[in-house]
Amino acid sequence: MSIFGSLEIGARGLGASQLALNVLGQNVSNANTEGYSRKRLELSADSRTDPSFGEMGFGVNVDKVARISDNFLELQIRRELTEQGFFISLDKGLERIENILTEPSDAGLNEAMDKFWASWQDLANNPEDPAAREVVRSTALVMEDKFHTLSRQFDELQMAQEADIEGKVEMINGMAEEIFNINEEIASMEISGGMANDGRDRRDYLMQELSKLIDVDTFEDEQGRLNVVTAGNVLVGAATVIKLELEKSTTTDESGELVQIGTIKFENTDKIYTPRGGELKGAFEMRDEIIPKFENFLDELASTFVESVNNLHSTGYNLEGNTGVDFFTQTNQTAESISLSASIRASEHNIAAATGGTSVGPINLASTIPAPTNQVIDLKTIDPNYRDIVQGSLQINMGSSELREGPGNDYVVDYGLGTVTFLNYNRYAGGEAIDVNFRYNSSGFSGPGDGSNALGIAQLRDQFTMGQDINGNPIKTMGEFYSSSIGVLGIERNQAKSNVETRGFLVNQFMNRKQEISGVSLDEELGDMIKFEHSYQASARFISTINKLLDTLLNM
Amino acid sequence: MSSRVTFSQINGLVQSNIQRNYAKIANLQEQLSSGKAIQRPSDAPVDLTKDLQLRSDLRQLEQFKRNIEDGMSYLTIVESTMSSTNDLFQRSRELALQARNDTNTDTERAHIMSEVKVILDSMVATANRSYNGAFVFAGTETRTPPYELREGKDRIDSFDNSATDGADNVLNLGAPIKIWDRNVTDSQVVTPNPNGNAPVNDILPGSLKITGLTEGEDYEVDYVQGTITFLPTTTTNIPGIGNLTDTEIAAAIPTADPEGRAETYPGWPVPPFSPQPGGGLEVTFEWIKRSDKDMDGVINREIEVGLTGKINVTASEVFGSPTDVTTWDAMVKLMEGLHKDKGAIIGEAISDIDSSYERILTGQATMGARMNRIEMTQSRNDESYIETTRLHSFIEDIDFAKVISEFLMQESVYNASLQSGARVIQPTLANFL
């Protein structure tokens, strides 16, 4: 080994330390850069073959600048981000729906419905009073308004989802293109044996962002290009990038309105893209499943209102003595279209509070009530017309005392069929005459003081008009239907929220692990800085020592 | 924790912990400032469903309370009306007893008659009592008063001595002729005559006048049934005509025989004949007309879920239906007895008054029972309201003491996380190199 060889060793040592400090400086400067993974200088001892000693050291070799990262961890992170992204989308959307419906509060639909029913009760108490009629009309208008507003807000939310989808598609396309470009960079750099560390960092970061939006599968080919596949279709390929296209088509929805629906297709093909995860999938689910579900709830509720109120109202009589008037416009049965009929808007006199009714009685029933096994008396056996009894008009007297109606009292009535079922058999066995008075519905106006139709409408509040059991019979009232829909909303949002939290927890764990492996620890770098400073000083001292040797040699 | 910890890990952890604590405090603050435990459906979905239903139930109970109170005031009014009618009856009965005694002179009876007339007017006024603009005894036909004291007019404009059935407007001797009121041409009349007029009953005694004729001499009136009977006598030499003198008839029925026959009694043509327009005997009177509308309608109030209470009493139940001996029949009979100065009629009137009185008592008893029932429902309603409010509050409202102590605890946790976080993120090795 010549002296110049020793100098070479020293110089190499200096170079290595300096390089190490450069790498360290790079790490420290980029400690807060998103997606940066720390770099390490990989050194190896160099040696030459000496004929006498065999391998003889020849200084330090800089092998490469290594990038400390874990590919498997990346895959795990991406997967969790995709899952979480889906639920984040749902959570945000459901939160907005909660804000639209504003329950529980005094401004919600529940309150508007309660006030509507109450106004019919007040009308039943004062059918001739124009003020009571006006109140019925105005509570109905408030309810109509509320339905319209809710419908409109849902439409707006739907449009916002469309815009969101559009925005996400653009982002995905942008990221896909960038990934493709980085692939090119990495391929050309690494083909000559280099390491495209920063390129890889950037690519990993982009992949993380992309996986939040859609589900991704990747594989890296021998040239270092990362192929990205989503929902089984290639997004970024070895030779090209296949972007997503948003195709808008106009269709009519159930209410007959023109809406623009966006479908995503792969560029220049007809293949439709349905993401299997990520925020984009969440946005689709909101748009196609969840928002329509709640819109349908509202529509069903509106339709039941219109049908059931009109059913009773059109057979009732208004102050003019006319019948056959609808309260709501019969053909407008969605939340968007529900409206008071023209006649009601024109005058509150047209509200049909009265039923028709012919008085009958007193009719003397058999002086003994039938035996306990058959305590039902069918009024139709007396006259086939005796059915559709006016609610509350039936009065039964036994001798001089009046019997009481209701379960737990003396009798119950089926007003529609015209049957009276006597409870409490022992009470009637005494043989006293039983007289019954009632009114049944035939044609004819029963007077401005009759509020029984209004009462019937008010009682719709407690009748089963919605929901279905296995036999197709309704099992819920309108109020129950609405509150259970709100319950569904609450439960779904809770699920989404807790999923976001759980996935978030997992994401954090993996991110932490990544930090553990690839993150820059300032303290570590500071410590290493001292180390390399010392080794630089040592190498420099070595060189000056060799220099002295050279001096000594040259001055011999 | 782990083998290698970087600064950004620590930073990230500190931040997320502080975030979490902050979010908890914010939630507690929201609860405290609104007083409500449930701000949105996702806070407690199942509780919210119950909450919405309870709110609704409370509204309904409030409504029932309003209905009950309205029903109660209605019943009270009806009850007091019937009470007043009772008092008036009592007074009438006293007067009747006093007047029945035949030792009364006719002037004394006349005095009593004027007081009875005043009582009758009051009775008509009470029968037409209204509440909130609706007549209370008129069932659902609340715009028409149940009874009216009206001026009536009829005309007898033909004569047929052969007819024995007392048909309308035919002067027939010895048989009661039904009076109709030509002032009424309502299409609502229940049993009209061919002209659409209403049949008359309950005429006020002393008010019936026939131009040119005298009551008691020429004709008799049955005031309750509403008939006139022209009295036949045999003092004239026209067989079967009666004690109307020819000049009286001539004066009362100015007609001409269309065939121009000469008559034995000028002005009194051979029967039967058709009247000339404008001719005929005019009858004027005052009578009590019952409304022709269907007054048996039921007025209900819904006082509990599915339970309605009838709150009205119909005119038929209080004053009698057209087929009964009505209150007015009784009063008119009394006045008839006073007018005709006949103690026997007054005697009959007393028993009629008694049965009408019974009827009102029965009506009052029924009303009393109804009021009791509604009152019981009212106390049930009050209890339900309190219980439902309690349940509702339990679900929806926060327990202030509990939330405040949670808040204070969370606040100290938050402070601790802030302080400890601050201490951890500050020092680095650079401080010491």
Short overview:
The complex is a heterodimer of chains A (556) and B (433). Chain A has 556 residues and is an alpha+beta fold. Helix content of chain A is 50%, strand content 17%.
Fold and architecture overview:
The complex is a heterodimer of chains A (556) and B (433). Helix content of chain A is 50%, strand content 17%. By secondary structure, chain A is an alpha+beta fold. Chain A has a four-stranded antiparallel β-sheet with strand order 8-14-10-11, with no helix packed on it. Chain A has a three-stranded antiparallel β-sheet with strand order 3-4-5. Chain A has a three-stranded antiparallel β-sheet with strand order 9-13-12, with no helix packed on it. Chain A is rod-shaped, with a radius of gyration of 42 Å. Chain B has eight helices and 14 strands. Chain B has helices spanning 7-34, 45-100, 106-127, 246-252, 315-319, 327-340, 343-396, 400-425; strands at 130-131, 134-135, 147-156, 158-159, 170-171, 177-178, 180-181, 198-199, 209-210, 219-222, 227-230, 281-290, 300-304, 307-310. In chain B, the strands form six sheets. A three-stranded antiparallel β-sheet of chain B has the order 3-12-9. Chain B has a three-stranded antiparallel β-sheet with strand order 6-11-10, with no helix packed on it. Residues 160-167 and 233-278 of chain B have low confidence and may be disordered. The chains are: A alpha+beta (556), B alpha+beta (433). At the A-B interface, helix 2, helix 3, helix 8, helix 9 and helix 10 of A face helix 1, helix 2, strand 13, strand 14 and helix 7 of B.
